[in-house]
Amino acid sequence: MANNKIRILVTPCKDPDLDGTACAYAYAEFLRKTSMDEVIGAISGSIHREAQFVFKTFNISPMDDAEKEIKNCNKIIIVDASDLRSLSDKIDPKKVMRVIDHRIVNDSHLFPNAKLQIEPVGSAATLIAEKFFNAQIQISRESAALLFSAIISNTIDFKARVTVPRDRKMASWLKAKLVLPSDYIHSMFEYKSKISGSLEEVFYSDFATFCFNKIKLGIVQLEIIRVDSFIDKNLEQINETLEKIKKDKGLDHILLSAIDLEKGFNKFVAIDKDTEKILLSSVHKTKFIRGIAKRDGIIMRKELAPLIKNVLESTK
According to CATH, what is the number of the domain 7-188? Predict the structure, then answer.
């Protein structure tokens, strides 16, 4: 790599979901069309099932491996992430020039040289789509498909409370550039709901840890259809898996938040009474029966974490 050559890596968290994958792919395209720098969008690990569905449906070529590209890049842009724990351990925080995310709870201060764009929209894909829209830059079919699908996914087809008008506007703009079958969204959610491999692998694929008031909390977020049936059939294994993750990660509490993508509700599973109490103090109108609580309407982990933070940090 020549000394005067600027090469920028755009990447999300490790094992990214559809939102992070879409943002890395599309923002790299945007920068290539608007910058003189060399830009590459790449990922660490494996993309989630939902992202696999979009890549397969639109015949999109696999993205490059960020682990191999990091050493060849002068600068790094982080998308749909704003904390070090979720990133590849090969990333030097001082090389991060920009952070684009939509989480209220974040560690963006750990990137001392980064320009921050953290805005409370339903999907980080909305922020990337707006860049094309505002600059009137032509967007490829592949990026349009990924960003549209990511907005639908992150807002649970606009059922989630995190949805804002900006999400709807960008989804409408992107959809107009695509030819989609009438059952596209259902098919994407159905594909995402096909659980293969061990339950531990599935839980780790969308798992996040938090530390509030020196209390370590883990939250598994599972987004599928037919949540009631899944929990009824697998409750014993769910509890065993949560217990194992809690022990392996040295957590004080662990919680499963299962979101029904089509019916629009949460079911929570807790393995101890103390965790139940924390959730009940954070999310009202919720009642646990044998370790399971149902809540009408959807609350995302990004909404749940600040509520739990307020409860735990008010505890002396």
Answer: 3.90.1640.10
Instruction: Supply the pTM of this predicted model.
Output: 0.87
Q: Which amino acid is at 123?
A: S
Q: Please identify which residue in the block is written with the tokens 């032509």.
A: 138
Structure tokens at 204: 């780790």
- CA distances from residue 156 to 50, 122, 127, 183 in whole angstroms, order as listed: 12, 9, 17, 15
- CATH 3.90.1640.10 in the chain is located at 7-188
CATH class for the domain made up of 199-313 = alpha beta
Least Cα distance to 228 among 201, 191, 268, 189 occurs for: 268
> Are 50 and 154 spatial neighbours (Cβ–Cβ below 8 Å)?
no
Q: Do the Cβ atoms of 71 and 88 come closer than 8 Å?
A: no
Beta strands in the chain (DSSP E): 7-11, 38-43, 64-65, 75-79, 96-101, 115-118, 207-212, 215-224, 253-260, 265-270, 288-289, 292-296
Residues of the chain with CATH 3.10.310.20: 199-313
For the chain, 316 residues long, give each residue's pLDDT as a single digit of tens.
Answer: 444 668 999 999 999 999 999 999 999 999 999 998 999 999 999 999 999 999 999 999 999 999 999 998 999 999 999 888 888 889 999 999 999 999 877 788 899 999 999 999 999 999 999 999 999 999 999 999 999 999 999 999 999 999 999 999 999 999 999 999 999 999 999 999 988 889 999 999 889 899 999 999 999 999 999 999 999 999 999 999 999 999 999 999 999 999 999 999 999 999 999 999 999 899 877 889 999 999 999 999 988 999 999 999 886 5
CA 244 to chain centre: 23
Matching residue, tokens 């933070």: 309
